[in-house]
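fyi for ur records
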Amino acid sequence: MRGMVAGVILGLVLGLAVGFNRSPIGLVGAQPDIQPPPRAMLPGGQVREFRFVVRPGKWEIMPGTAVDAWTYNGQVPGPELRVREGDLVRVIVKNALPVPTTIHWHGVDLDWRMDGPPGTNQDPILPGKTFTYEFVATPAGTRFYHSHVDPEVQMELGLYGALIIEPREPEAVRYDREYTYILDELALDFTPRVALGKERLPMAEFGNGRGGALHYDLFLMNGRAGTGIPPVTLKAGERVRIRLINVGSLPHAMHIHGHFFTIVATDGNPVPPGARLRKDTVLIGPGERYDLELVGYNPGVWMFHCHMQNHAANGMMTTITYDGFKPLHEQMPLPAPKRAQEPAAAAPAVRTAQAPPGRGAAEVVVRMADNRFEPPMVRIPVGTQVTWVNRGINAHTTTGLDVFWDSPAMVTGRRFSVTFTNPGTYRYLCREHFLNGMTGTIEVTGGKPR
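which gave:
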């Protein structure tokens, strides 16, 4: 009996060993879809040539707020490259930065000499020099590109972009619309001058930059925060593909309200229909991509945001908006106020424990907290100056719904003032947190309009 049991156990062990010994390399011959990447353009392909100038530039994070950046062709993210599987892709890169750079083609099967890491696959592209990348576009799917010289520096400063390789054969599902969202984080105090060693990174003595980890201020979609992020728009019944690409250093839990989505591809590779998941939240790690299929079955306006709440509160939030619908704050009818005096931003306030009191009856102070105005409604006579002071942790704005005034993003301690010279009801919001309900009202009474 013992001999029989021992034989059975030995057979199971040997069977498992054979099973575990089937390495991916061994599968190449058994699965014809796993083949070495092509080195020549496939029949029916085209030569697709692009030119990049890698140079310093301005990066607008949200309306009125721009930072210094390193860019591809003056923009962050870099241009979205869209090619067809089998095309010969040629990217001519001129380096106009003060430091070397390269480009890595993330998720693309190409000749190893075109992969980008300096010292491993190529020499770095020195300042003023040009290098040409050439490869056959394969495999199809959501890919991206980014710098691979000091990526913890150059990607932070804006050097990344989307690469979409469309399949040679038509897909089984036709999408009515398509959106690509690149996820990233931004530390406002990490500037090109800091990267070049010309300025010191603030708060380094408190851990900022330790181990290369920065203290992030904003969380971005397509290089924008808050109202700078374009929404997903659709009609009822439409089928939409949303491509998510995480180029940042943190994971993000992207959540949709009022719907589920279906994960149809991971890292650009199709998920077989029988293995697809229906979810309302997907956790996407650094370097990962997810293609989400959204069907328009629930008309309205719905939030689409990172469910790590400090990420959403500091930029990583937009909406799913059906045609014919508007967010609630845009639907509230209000008497149109007469033209108010043009605003003027005051100098930054001295940081104190509490917001400074108004300077007499002609000024009222509204505190900005996270994420609300205090008080949310004030009544003032004509000629009164309202001063908003940020006493929260997050950056905020004060923006009139009719855009009679619009402050820049205000960090902690900053203030902004508007003098109201005409009676009426003025509604306003924080551009970055109105989806969190950060709105306010000012009623201006009495006096003669000027």
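Residues 47-166 form a domain with the Immunoglobulin-like fold (CATH 2.60.40.420). thats all i got for now
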